[in-house]
Amino acid sequence: MTTLLVLSGLAAALAASGCAAAWLLPAGPGRDAGVVALLVGTAVLCLVAAVPGPVASEGDDLAWLLPVVLAPVGVLGGGPVTALVLRLADREEPGSSGPGQFEQAAAVLRGGAWIGVFERAGIVASLLGGWPEGIAVVLGLKGLGRYSELKGGDQPGGAGGGVAERFIIGTFSSVLWAAASAGALVGLVG
Question: What is this structure's pTM?
């Protein structure tokens, strides 16, 4: 067993525990620490995956752990990360009061967390299955499904501005997370 494989196993465990904390704990310091652990663990996995050649081979004891952990982290881990990105995008200017435009737009884009889970599952499965064109199918279906909200969200009487921007920022962060996780898995296992 190589040092890189052991490091990958530890990073995968950190990412998985951070993902679980980010999904299961109430908002607050515990959930925030979970998101940090998720980000750090996944970043280490991406760095190790950049080493030429697969890190794990079929005979390694930890080789089974990486796909079992990284596929769910690719699907579920994107939710807390996307929420963090949207919170950062919605930061208010000092001295303003009330919810930000992205927070208001969230009321129009209901079900986004679950749609994101299915989106990332489709992307991870497409990339691991060697069919990157599946990303276009997933994004096309998502865009068609959200068309009415995207078209009417910025209209008078709607939720106000920010609907399309929230959709784009959330989709990009979700897709990048899924692609990075699947890429790390391919780089680690081969």
Answer: 0.84
